[in-house]
Amino acid sequence: MKSLALAFAAGVVFALGLGLSGMTNPDKVLAFLDVAGRWDPSLAFVMVGAIAVHAPAALWARRAERPLWAGAFLRSRRTAIDGALVAGAALFGLGWGAAGYCPGPAIVDLAAPSPSRVGFVLAMVAGILIHRLGSRFVGRPGTVATESSTSGARPV
Amino acid sequence: MSFTPVAALAGGALIGLSASALLVLNGRVAGISSIVGGLVLPRPRELAWKVAFIAGLLAGGLVLAWRWPAVIAPQPAAIPGVLVAVAGLLVGFGTQLGGGCTSGHGVCGLAQGSRRSLLAVVTFMATGGLAAFFVRHVLPRLA
Q1: pLDDT tens-digit profile of B53-108?
Q2: Distance in angstroms (rounded) separating the CA atoms of residues B117 and A35
Q3: What is B66-114 written as a DSSP string?
Q4: CB contact (8 A) between residue B89 and residue A115
Q5: Which of A47, A50, A23 is nearest to A109 (CA)?
Q6: What is the pLDDT, as a whole number, of residue B44?
Q7: What is the mean pLDDT of chain A?
Q8: Which of B56, B96, B106 has the CB atom closest to A10's CB atom?
Q9: Are B84 and A39 spatial neighbours (Cβ–Cβ below 8 Å)?
Q10: B60, A9: Cβ pair inside 8 Å?
Q11: Distance from CA of B104 to the nearest CA of A (A)
Q12: Measured distance CA(A14)–CA(A24) in Å, rounded
């Protein structure tokens, strides 16, 4: 069906964008994060390019009733600015700055695997599992990224 | 690494295009950490498109490896395996706890003006900088 084909095509284009911008190379990412080294601002330009192109669609979606090919938007139920948001972002950043990988490039780079790349992805999946199982044990629904299909919901 | 503003903007534009198509047509957010997270202990209803997207990422990677291998070729391991594993754990756990990563918060969240995402981005950029500095400038001197 066309939605699945679109999802696949979007993944391909996303990967090509990461490759073209150099974000598939962790050294180029680290050259941005390591401000004390020979600083390369390219990553900021990647973000600017992506946000500039995506903004019209994102702003349209904030008020639209529904997407064009599906019944409703899928939005996260998490709207609070809370400790989990900050702690999670902080921890993610530490991992990102240590290895130069975030989830997207880590997956794409599996197409040219190395022990280090495979190891990172396996560890990432383990980290996801730990959070999933930990959330169920603690039983705090607010900290689980539950999904709901409420169209037109305004993001925070 | 050399500054490559044009390639960076163009690559970013492709990322933005991908996210826009996914949002406008399918009503889904191109937040990679949530897409990958959704494959671990999945909800069946959202599984198919997430698998398709991840397959697309890998297919795109194969295209890169085939046509532009220099951008995706593995470099000799710069950091020890234990640190790679710890980094992966932090990225996996942290993205789920924080509800997003550079694509979900950084691109999609900021593009719609989300204050949550702005806070997340500022936070992970800051700790990212700290970790990069530590690994590149402090760790080599401790070894």
Answers
A1: 999 999 999 999 999 999 999 988 778 999 999 999 999 999 999 999 999 999 99
A2: 22
A3: HH-GGGTPPPP--S-HHHHHHHHHHHHHHHHHHT--IIIIIIIIHHTT-
A4: no
A5: A23
A6: 73
A7: 89
A8: B56
A9: no
A10: no
A11: 10
A12: 11
Nearest CA in chain A to B125: A93
Cβ–Cβ under 8 Å, residues A120 and A128: no
Chain A: residue whose CA lies nearest to B69: A112
Residue of B2, B26, B43 best to disrupt the A interface, most CBs of A under 10 A: B26
Q: Do B7 and A22 touch (CB under 8 A)?
A: yes
**pLDDT tens, residue by residue, A46-94:** 999 999 999 999 999 999 999 999 999 998 888 899 999 999 999 999 9
Q: Do A3 and B25 touch (CB under 8 A)?
A: yes
CA–CA dist A47, B102 (Å, integer): 9
A151: confidence class by pLDDT, cuts 50, 70, 90 = very low
- Name the residue in chain A with its Cα closest to that of B57: A11
Q: Which residue of B has its CA nearest to A143?
A: B97
Comparison of pLDDT for B46 and A138, the residue scoring more: B46
Question: To which residue do tokens 């990553």 refer?
Answer: A43
